[in-house]
Amino acid sequence: MYKATVNVTLRKSILDPQGKAAHHALQNLGMKEIDSVRIGKLIEMDIDAENKERAHEIAENACAQLLANEVMEDYNVTIHENSE
Amino acid sequence: MYKATVNVTLRKSILDPQGKAAHHALQNLGMKEIDSVRIGKLIEMDIDAENKERAHEIAENACAQLLANEVMEDYNVTIHENSE
């Protein structure tokens, strides 16, 4: 059993209204040192695969087919051995 | 200038309907090897601080005050030097 961690982030050229709103709220709370905020998704999956390469392939597939929108988002997949 | 990366994940005991829906959709796409999906947030901030410790403190503050809901969510903060 492997654990896949996928970071999905909006591409740099895409406006991030959720991040903008958080940034604005943080400014209002007095945190002027924060210059920009961008919010993406962190997806954790348990994958039952024979080896790490196969687990990576399954996770990539899941991203391409469903989890990420490749037009607007970048993603990267990391696979760990599941210690639990 | 430092870059803070914050992973916000739902606590294990909290039901994750978004993850459940993604898991179900992946099963329907034939990806039976995926056993569970949980979806959290990935927040990236640019922080203007004199040192790494101060940047960490600011990011922790932002999480505690606004970005994470400590009742339902766990978060962890990583600070990198901003290379850009």
Automatic annotation (TrEMBL), chains A, B:
<keyword id="KW-0436">Ligase</keyword>
<dbReference type="GO" id="GO:0005524">
    <property type="term" value="F:ATP binding"/>
</dbReference>
<dbReference type="InterPro" id="IPR036604">
    <property type="entry name" value="PurS-like_sf"/>
</dbReference>
<keyword id="KW-0963">Cytoplasm</keyword>
<dbReference type="GO" id="GO:0004642">
    <property type="term" value="F:phosphoribosylformylglycinamidine synthase activity"/>
</dbReference>
<keyword id="KW-0547">Nucleotide-binding</keyword>
<dbReference type="Pfam" id="PF02700">
    <property type="entry name" value="PurS"/>
</dbReference>
<comment type="similarity">
    <text>Belongs to the PurS family.</text>
</comment>
<keyword id="KW-0067">ATP-binding</keyword>
<comment type="subunit">
    <text>Part of the FGAM synthase complex composed of 1 PurL, 1 PurQ and 2 PurS subunits.</text>
</comment>
<comment type="pathway">
    <text>Purine metabolism; IMP biosynthesis via de novo pathway; 5-amino-1-(5-phospho-D-ribosyl)imidazole from N(2)-formyl-N(1)-(5-phospho-D-ribosyl)glycinamide: step 1/2.</text>
</comment>
<dbReference type="GO" id="GO:0006189">
    <property type="term" value="P:'de novo' IMP biosynthetic process"/>
</dbReference>
<comment type="function">
    <text>Part of the phosphoribosylformylglycinamidine synthase complex involved in the purines biosynthetic pathway. Catalyzes the ATP-dependent conversion of formylglycinamide ribonucleotide (FGAR) and glutamine to yield formylglycinamidine ribonucleotide (FGAM) and glutamate. The FGAM synthase complex is composed of three subunits. PurQ produces an ammonia molecule by converting glutamine to glutamate. PurL transfers the ammonia molecule to FGAR to form FGAM in an ATP-dependent manner.</text>
</comment>
<dbReference type="GO" id="GO:0005737">
    <property type="term" value="C:cytoplasm"/>
</dbReference>
<dbReference type="InterPro" id="IPR003850">
    <property type="entry name" value="PurS"/>
</dbReference>
<protein>
    <recommendedName>
        <fullName>Phosphoribosylformylglycinamidine synthase subunit PurS</fullName>
        <ecNumber>6.3.5.3</ecNumber>
    </recommendedName>
</protein>
<keyword id="KW-0658">Purine biosynthesis</keyword>
